[in-house]
Amino acid sequence: MEIKEFSLSDSLGDIVSLGGKFIDHSYSKEKVQQRLQGKNFHIYFAVENENKVGLCIWFPEGKEAYWWLLCVDASFRRKGIGKVLSQFLEKQIKHAGFSVITAKTHTKRSAMIELFKKLGYTEVGREKGHWGDEREAIFYEKKI
Ligand SMILES: CC(C)(COP(=O)(O)OP(=O)(O)OC[C@H]1O[C@@H](n2cnc3c(N)ncnc32)[C@H](O)[C@@H]1OP(=O)(O)O)[C@@H](O)C(=O)NCCC(=O)NCCS
């Protein structure tokens, strides 16, 4: 498995198919483009035998680095890919000169919550209805 950085134009279809399938069915090309518009984003894929099996994306938000997305293809989970991608992302963020990473998930994403714990992220807040629905957001931070 290797990790490669991709441009948005080269990976938009894969972001939508991985993100849409494994995170949120409402992901569309337009939504992803809108979310990343004007941002100095970085898109990394875990690639195994030329297949994109994992994805993460971050971008600067003020003085901090915001980790927007992480997902691993369901048939490749619990093999350490999420952890390796996350550690790669942290290294890149540090290299880019940031010392704080922020991220969020919601209370039903137990695998992601466990991964945040494992990686040493601190929970810094919660908010019900953060996305305008029944989900409760959990906010995380890590100093690197
Ligand atoms: C969260 C996710 C990226 C983890 O990817 P992964 O490649 O399976 O994770 P790893 O194999 O690297 O696991 C690393 C650690 O995370 C935790 N973890 C991962 N999956 C877990 C699960 N299903 N239950 C409990 N802990 C889990 C464990 O601490 C694990 O370490 P261990 O295997 O030594 O116990 C993956 O489950 C996923 O894509 N989920 C759907 C998308 C999603 O929810 N993304 C987050 C959006 S905010």
CATH topology term: Aminopeptidase
SS elements, strand count: 7
The total count of helices amounts to 4
Which strand-content bin applies to the residues? 35-45%
Protein structure class = alpha+beta
N- and C-termini, Cα separation: 25 Å
Using only C-alpha atoms, the radius of gyration works out to 14 Å
Fourth-level CATH superfamily: Gcn5-related N-acetyltransferase (GNAT)
| The top level CATH class name | Alpha Beta
What coarse outline follows from CA principal-axis ratios?
globular
Estimate percent helicity: 25-40%
Task: Give a short overview.
A seven-stranded mixed beta sheet has the order 1-2-3-4-5-7-6, with helices on both faces. The protein is built from four helices and seven strands. It has helices at residues 8-22, 29-36, 81-95, 110-118; strands at residues 2-6, 42-48, 51-61, 64-72, 100-106, 122-128, 136-143.
Could you please describe the fold and organization of this structure?
The chain is α+β, with helices and mostly antiparallel strands. It has a single domain, classed as Aminopeptidase, CATH 3.40.630.30. Strands 1-2-3-4-5-7-6 form a 7-stranded mixed sheet, with helices on both faces. The structure holds coenzyme A. The site of coenzyme A has 20 residues, from strand 4, helix 3 and helix 4.
Write the layout of secondary structure elements.
Elements: E1 2-6, H1 8-22, H2 29-36, E2 42-48, E3 51-61, E4 64-72, H3 81-95, E5 100-106, H4 110-118, E6 122-128, E7 136-143
The structure holds coenzyme A.
